[in-house]
Amino acid sequence: MQPTSLAFQSKAAAALADPNLQTALGGIKTGWQRGRILAADRLPEFEQLRDQARDIKNHALANLDFYLEAFEARVLDAGGQVHWARDAAEARRIIQEICESAGAKTVTKSKSMIAEEIGLNDHLEAAGITPVETDLGEYIIQLRKEPPSHLVGPAVHLTKDQVADLFEQTHGLPRTDDPTELVGQARTVLRQKYLQADVGITGANFLIAETGSAITVTNEGNAELTQGLPKVHVVIASLEKVIPSMEDAFTLLRVLARSATGQEFSAYTTVMTGPKRQGDLDGPEQFHVVLLDNGRTGMIGSKFQDMLRCIRCGACMNNCPVYLAAGGHAYGWVYVGPMGSVLTPQFVGIESAHTLPNASTFCGRCEEVCPVRIPLPNLMRHWREEQFKRQLVPSTVRYGLGTWGFFARRPALYRLATRLAMGVLGRLGKKRGRFASLPLAEGWTVSRDLPAPQGRTFMQQWRQRQRSRP
Amino acid sequence: MNSAESSPRPGPRVGLFVTCLVDLFRPSVGFAAVKLLEDAGCTVEVPEAQTCCGQPAFNSGDRATTEALVRGLIDAFEGYDYVVAPSGSCAGMLRTHVPDLFEDDPATAARAKEFAGRCHELVSFLVDVLGVRAVPAQLERHATYHDSCAGLRELKIKRQPRLLLEGVAGLTVTEMKEPEVCCGFGGTFCVKYPQVSTKMVDNKAADIEGTGADLLLAGDLGCLMNMAGRLARRGSAVEVRHVAEVLAGELDAPPIGRPAGA
Between A401, A411, A430, which is nearest B60 by CB? Predict the structure, then answer.
């Protein structure tokens, strides 16, 4: 997917003018945002669990090589295969080869952000293989040929009416806006696809080093049908998904669903270990795990290592006032919201995404809700430092900042300049107490009045007061 | 630290960090801060060599300018028992971010950490450090209080302003539905992304208006100017002031963005 992150500003403006999108985004506040608060309130040890979750991920990252090798060994023991992919192209090629050697015409997919990251669907289609998304949200956006707008709810930008219109056009059935009937329609279509598919591709929320298992969580049970029905099952996951033990996974699962949707647990937690064993009634004949690096090992030991703790719950975006105004597509690539503002520059380069770490007031709500306590505002600030270092800051901003910095570093000169400027502004603004417009301040005054300064600066008045004091 | 109980000794010597916005736009907040600190027994001084906490440079990724400014502040506030600012955002910068600067300069880093430990936001300093539980202020108004993000999340300022406002005779405080949601100011964010910022401050204005309060209070002038500017543009009658003005009873200046005598 070609990043369009540099257009954040205009895309956000369009999003704000789209009433359907604003309605859909409003649902996040009343749904998932509120759900998280209630779920956290019901669990007295929630904050301690967050600490444990953070520590588990930190430990796994500090010993990543060890746990990855252990994971690979257990997968092989269970009769599966592990493929290491340095980058997106290598991962796509590996998956294409697995599909081709299985003679695959269609593959079913359960939700995978890594598949989005590597642009898997377009690649498979170009190779003559039809990918079928089985997560309801992914199914909807695949029909609309859109990228996901949210980690957990890829189609969260759409209203029920928009889905009703889409299904009427696609399914050729009489229009219904009854959610149960809409889901029923998708289910009917997808049941056939599950049975036809030659390969099933799933993501993984966690990879367990002690057992060689991959774990996915869904609310639709589509991961079971995707991994269990076709002859070949492929797990595509990034390296940092590996954690030591099943016990660790269940600690992380306790914070994952609560943070994401406010559920205590997702409806389905699927543990997938190796291919079908002798005596098993069902399951795939082949089990492949494609482990994707794509620059992640370079993040280890860097200022961005903390980001690798992310468990993709979406709480940061559900609670981000910028995301809730602009929606996910404004971010212009696969990952959106605060976590996307940190990850996207990592994957597409800061020169193609410097708008994103700037699309934050640093209000800190994302960090406040992050189940693994990622300091997201600090990480966004590191990207701003990178942007500044590489001279990617617009020249007007750079010049303004430079001028301000010049004076701010010279208190005496600063006193003089500000005394003069505030004196003028104070006189100009005295009558109304504010300005409706002011040269060089359009970004402010386009939608707000600018309160006028009182006239004489504090330092000016303070000095006078000190002189008059005995 | 228990200066409140050890009254025979002279009160702590406080260096007031005025903050650039208060210095330039609303000096009355600075004088309110001085009054509150002096009433609580502090000796207040205002070092001449201060300008800005460095946050605009810090949040723009300009570490060199940030560190140059912070070095100046560390020198300017050398020797004071405390450094107090009428802003959660600037105090948050000084207290929580300054210790992470100067990675390549251990000597300055050590000074920076010591300096940061002495820095406080005004209202939380009064309550948490000086043990102030009430101020003798009076105001017959209906107010609502906005929690500015940096104060709330970096410095855990939530109950302190409410505690002191509760004691203001005649004042009623009604909470917004979402007092902790950002107003959309965000420093340069509000001019870099004016549409998104406007949407955020509009949501905030609606929440403020929904309380029925006629006075909006907060502890950060940046947020206050943003909200006051948007409320004025919407034609709202809600007046806007820094919480220190109410607590100090210094209400001679007109509300933020209003003309004198209005």
Answer: A401
